[in-house]
């Protein structure tokens, strides 16, 4: 049994996934990234091994991805998070042509072909108003925790307009809406809608095409996908809730399988196999 692993060192969470040659997920783990990237990547990898009942010697090849991929000193190679996410999204939904990844600190949209190659991409990593952090900050201003966002928005009767121009100004806008008698649920709903507006604009810039697949931790909240559907007037794919944060790590693990087959003499081009070979 040939086993490979993907390590996704994201700005907020670090994830690890282990797969076999049949593309079955054997183990996975997740932990807050923090500041010690090399240590957290090793720790999360070992937790994924424990989850699968495996030893480090059982894994033949490791691919790192995410903004901290360079800090995974036990990797065999690395790929960009766009490449890994495309691979993971296509695993769940082979018809995927546009991927929207909403993370804690960045938001990315990419258009991919039928081989899961990235053909066009855009990033929003300069303003928190276009990331999951915007929703988390809005929730905190009103005294709610991140895990309460989903249940809170589910009780909303109507969304309150939130400009989302800048996360720094969100506090005063939220305070103003609360003083006007708006409910926290409706304010949170408005913040989600604001984030979706930015998401759709990013998707348009990559000349989005169906099928649309949404990934990233913020997609744990069903409201996000629902509002995107309403905005696009089209259906969207979302991986299973327990895997929506692991798409990049899974994609890296699957690319490791392809890379290993090539190294072992398999023929054929490997789509987006390394950072230097991928075409954005």
Q: Would you kindly provide a written description of the structure presented here, covering whatever features stand out?
A:
The chain is α/β, with parallel strands linked by helices and 280 residues long. The protein folds into 2 domains: 1-93 and 245-280, 2-Layer Sandwich (Nucleotidyltransferase, domain 5), CATH 3.30.420.40; 94-238, Nucleotidyltransferase, domain 5. The chain is 37% helix and 19% strand. The protein contains 8 helices and 9 strands. The chain has helices at residues 37-52, 81-92, 132-141, 149-153, 170-179, 184-205, 222-232, 247-263; strands at 3-9, 13-20, 25-32, 59-65, 77-78, 98-102, 107-112, 118-124, 212-215. It has a 5-stranded mixed β-sheet. It has a 4-stranded mixed β-sheet with strand order 8-7-6-9, sandwiched between helices. α2 (81-92) crosses α8, α3 (132-141) crosses α5 (170-179) and α3 (132-141) runs antiparallel to α6 (184-205). The longest helix has 22 residues, at 184-205. Residues 267-273 and 276-280 have low confidence and may be disordered.
Helix content: 25-40%
> By CATH's scheme, which homologous superfamily of the largest domain applies?
ATPase, nucleotide binding domain
Order of helices and strands: EEEHEEHEEEHHHHEHH
* Overall 3D shape: globular
Poorly predicted residue ranges: 267-273, 276-280
Q: In whole angstroms, how far apart are the ends?
A: 33 Å
Strand order of the largest sheet: 3-2-1-4-5
**Count of strand segments:** 9
How does the helix and strand content classify structurally? alpha/beta
Biggest sheet layout: 5 strands, mixed
| Chain-averaged pLDDT | 88
CATH class of the largest domain: Alpha Beta
Integer count of domains = 2
| Beta-strand percent range | 15-25%
CATH architecture of the largest domain: 2-Layer Sandwich
Helical stretch tally: 8
Oligomer class = single chain
């Amino acid at each position: 049994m040939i086993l490979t692993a993907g390590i996704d060192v994201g700005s907020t969470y670090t994830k690890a996934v282990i797969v076999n040659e049949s593309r079955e997920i054997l183990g996975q783990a997740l932990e807050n990234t923090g500041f010690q990237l090399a240590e957290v990547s090793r720790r999360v990898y070992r937790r994924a091994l424990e989850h699968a009942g495996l030893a480090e010697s059982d894994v033949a090849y490791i691919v790192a991805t995410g903004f901290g991929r360079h800090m995974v000193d036990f990797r065999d190679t690395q790929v960009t998070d766009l490449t890994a996410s495309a691979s993971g999204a296509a695993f769940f939904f082979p018809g995927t042509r546009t991927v929207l990844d909403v993370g804690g600190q960045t938001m990315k949209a990419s258009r991919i072909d039928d081989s899961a190659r990235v053909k066009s991409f855009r990033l929003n990593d300069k303003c928190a108003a276009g990331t999951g952090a915007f929703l988390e900050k809005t929730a905190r201003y009103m005294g709610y925790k991140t895990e309460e966002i989903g249940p809170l928005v589910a009780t909303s009767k109507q969304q309150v307009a939130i400009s989302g121009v800048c996360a720094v100004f969100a506090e005063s806008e939220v305070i103003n809406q609360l003083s006007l008698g708006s409910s926290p649920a409706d304010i949170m709903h408005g913040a989600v809608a604001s984030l979706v507006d930015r998401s759709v604009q990013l998707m348009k810039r990559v000349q989005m095409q169906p099928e649309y697949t949404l990934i990233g931790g913020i997609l744990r909240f069903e409201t996000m996908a629902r509002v995107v559907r309403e905005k696009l007037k089209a259906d969207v794919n979302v991986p299973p809730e327990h895997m929506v944060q692991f798409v990049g790590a899974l994609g890296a693990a699957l690319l490791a399988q392809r890379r290993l087959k090539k190294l072992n003499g398999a023929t054929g081009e490997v789509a987006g196999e390394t950072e230097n070979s991928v075409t954005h």
